[in-house]
């Protein structure tokens, strides 16, 4: 399998190359040159199989040429056989006649990002050992990426991870899940700014090619293809459990950087019968606005009850636009130049129509998010986290056919956002036993100004 950049000016790479590179050298994102296609018979054969076995079938074509089947199998068994605390790994829960939740929070840091980052840590280990290289991981997090990435990389021999988070803008549980990891190869940095500032710092470091090569910089944000790839799997396992390929299934995805829902779009492209893909956003609704008006325009960031979705622009949207534009990299370069210069662009009519053909979108503000949490708890006793509640609100608005199962992705455990959950439902969700003492553990972090020079100096100091 070969990968190409959405901006068309970086070299083609194999899976090992894109995993170690992250952002393409032309500023674009890597996508598979061609998608593997699964027949109905192949999808049917996933029925009743353990998660790790389906993961092998789905992922194998994407890593062909870079990983042996035996190595891949061992990594998948270690990840999904052991690191997750539920035998189904990604269990479905029924909430209504044809409404389902896909619980993606049974991994070590209680959010869906563990699905990809537990695996990515193993890929890094494998490829760096093979090459005899060291890696510097640099990431920005609005909360959940950071802890999941740190958990995936802690203690690994050839990897140092620097994780930026917006100072005072992540929940206490989120912060402590990062800052209480005390291994020497983990550096937590609180940036005086918001999440987009953090993301801009990361991008600036990656675009400084000389710096990037000197420190061996690699990304763990969802611009890294391996993350999207790992998330394709649970669309297959859940759809098959609900009757696919002999029945269509719809999905609603609480969305920030567009990585998780893009994985659903890829699953559909591989042959999974997905009817609707609903983008659920909070107040930071650039995607919902773009779908409605065709104008993709940054509009500041507002803090909400669902902080992992508090983003200004969605980096993975570029991957989708590449498809909408018929894989014409020149179109993407033009759009992205306009985005940089004017903080937005207008989608061409044909591209907007293609977007609307594949996606629906809706927005939920904090009041609605809290109401959904309260109503669900009253109706069924189920306690959902605020990100999941944003999803449920959008699913209710956008669902066009109640005869098709609607699966809302439950992206975080309610205890990660305990204050918001308690406020809405009166219930104080307990942390799982392995984290019960989190609030009393020692923390380690440094604070930096929103300044790329200071960040680069800190990273060089650690070489
Ligand atoms: C990261 C995250 C999201 C958004 O996912 P994207 O792939 O960035 O769209 C939603 N919910 C939670 C809990 C998250 O951690």
UniProtKB/TrEMBL annotation:
Residues 2-80 form the Threonine synthase N-terminal domain. It catalyses: O-phospho-L-homoserine + H2O = L-threonine + phosphate. It holds the Pfam family THR4_C. Its cofactor is pyridoxal 5'-phosphate. Keywords: Amino-acid biosynthesis, Lyase, Pyridoxal phosphate. One of its GO terms (molecular function) is threonine synthase activity. Pathway: Amino-acid biosynthesis. InterPro entries: Ser/Thr_deHydtase_PyrdxlP-BS (IPR000634), Thr_synth_N (IPR029144), Thr_synth_N_sf (IPR037158), Thr_synthase-like (IPR004450), Threonine_Synthase (IPR051166), TrpB-like_PALP_sf (IPR036052). Its EC number is 4.2.3.1. CDD domains: Thr-synth_2. Belongs to the threonine synthase family. This is Threonine synthase.
């Amino acid at each position: 399998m070969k990968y190409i950049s959405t901006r068309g000016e970086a070299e083609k790479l194999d899976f090992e190359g894109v995993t170690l590179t992250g952002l393409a050298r032309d500023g674009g994102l890597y996508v598979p040159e061609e998608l593997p296609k699964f027949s109905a018979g192949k999808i049917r054969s996933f029925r009743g199989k353990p998660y790790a076995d389906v993961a092998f079938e789905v992922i194998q074509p994407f890593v062909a040429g870079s990983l042996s089947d035996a190595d891949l199998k061992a990594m998948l068994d270690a990840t999904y056989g052991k690191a997750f605390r539920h035998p189904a790994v990604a269990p479905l829960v029924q909430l209504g006649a044809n409404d389902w939740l896909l619980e993606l929070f049974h991994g070590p840091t209680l959010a869906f990002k563990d699905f990809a980052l537990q695996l990515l840590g193993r890929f890094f280990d494998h490829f760096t050992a093979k090459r005899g290289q060291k890696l510097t991981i640099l990431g920005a997090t609005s909360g959940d990426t950071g802890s999941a990435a740190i958990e995936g990389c802690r203690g690994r021999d050839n990897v140092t991870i620097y994780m930026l988070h917006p100072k005072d803008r992540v929940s206490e549980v989120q912060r402590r899940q990062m800052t209480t990891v005390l291994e020497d190869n983990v550096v937590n940095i609180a940036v005086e700014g918001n999440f987009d500032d953090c993301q801009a710092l990361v991008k600036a470091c990656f675009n400084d090619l000389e710096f990037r090569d000197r420190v061996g910089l690699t990304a763990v944000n969802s611009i890294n293809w391996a993350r999207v790839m790992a998330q394709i799997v649970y669309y297959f396992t859940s759809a098959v459990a609900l009757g696919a390929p002999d029945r269509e299934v719809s999905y609603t995805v609480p969305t920030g950087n567009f990585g998780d829902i893009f994985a659903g779009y890829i699953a559909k492209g591989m042959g999974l019968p997905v009817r609707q893909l609903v983008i659920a956003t909070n107040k930071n609704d650039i995607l919902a606005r773009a779908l409605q008006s065709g104008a993709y325009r940054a509009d500041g960031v507002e803090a909400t009850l669902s902080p992992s979705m508090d983003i200004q622009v969605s980096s993975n949207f570029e991957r989708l636009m590449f498809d909408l534009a018929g894989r014409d990299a020149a179109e993407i370069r033009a759009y992205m130049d306009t985005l940089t210069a004017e903080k937005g662009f207008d989608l061409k009519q044909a591209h907007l129509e293609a977007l609307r053909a594949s996606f629906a979108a809706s927005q939920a503000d904090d009041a609605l998010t809290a109401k959904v949490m309260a109503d669900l708890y009253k109706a069924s006793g189920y306690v959902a986290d605020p990100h999941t509640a944003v999803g449920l609100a959008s699913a209710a608005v956008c669902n066009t056919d109640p005869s098709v199962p609607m699966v809302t992705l439950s992206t975080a455990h309610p205890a990660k956002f305990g204050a918001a959950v308690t406020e809405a439902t009166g219930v104080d969700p307990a942390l799982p036993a392995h984290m019960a003492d989190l609030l009393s553990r020692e923390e380690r972090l440094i604070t930096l100004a929103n300044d790329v020079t200071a960040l680069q100096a800190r990273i060089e100091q650690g070489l």
